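Q&A log
Question type: sequence-to-structure
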Amino acid sequence: MKITITVENPTPEVLEKLLALAATPAAVVTAVPDDRWTPERARSYYDRLPPRAQQILLQVVEGQGECAADELKANGRNLRGSTGAFRRVLSEGKRTGLWPEALPVPLVSHIVGGQLKKLEMPGCGTDRYSHPVFEEGLRDLLLNRR
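Response status: OK
Response body:
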C-alpha cells in the first residue's frame, strides 16, 4: 500500500506529527520539500517539454549544469521560443497541481548586452542544485545519446 500526502508549507510541528504517524513497522517514509526537484519530477518535467527544449535540457545536463548559447546554436539551430518553454511548462504543471508551487525553474538564462550567453541550472554548490537530480532522472536518455 502506498499513501501520498502533500502538505504545502508545513510547520515543523505538523511535519513532526506526520512523520510520527507514518512511523509504523515496515513503513518507508520520505519527505521531499516542495522547493526541491526529485528524479521523478525531473523526468515528468522533461516529458512535457517540446522536442527542442528537451534537446536543450539534455545538453545542459550533459554539460554538468551549463551550456554556452553558441554550443546550443551549433549546426544552425535556433533558440527562439525554446527557452520560454522551461518556465511555461513549469507554470502549467504548478497550475494543474502536478508540481508544488515552490518548485524553482530548473534553467536560467544568462544575458549579456541583450545576447543570450549561456543556460545553466542555478544553485551550484548548494543543496538546491538540481543538476544531480536531473542527471539521475534522465539517466537512460543521457546514456542513449552517447
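Response note: The helical segments are 12-22, 39-48, 51-62, 69-72, 84-95, 131-137, 139-145.
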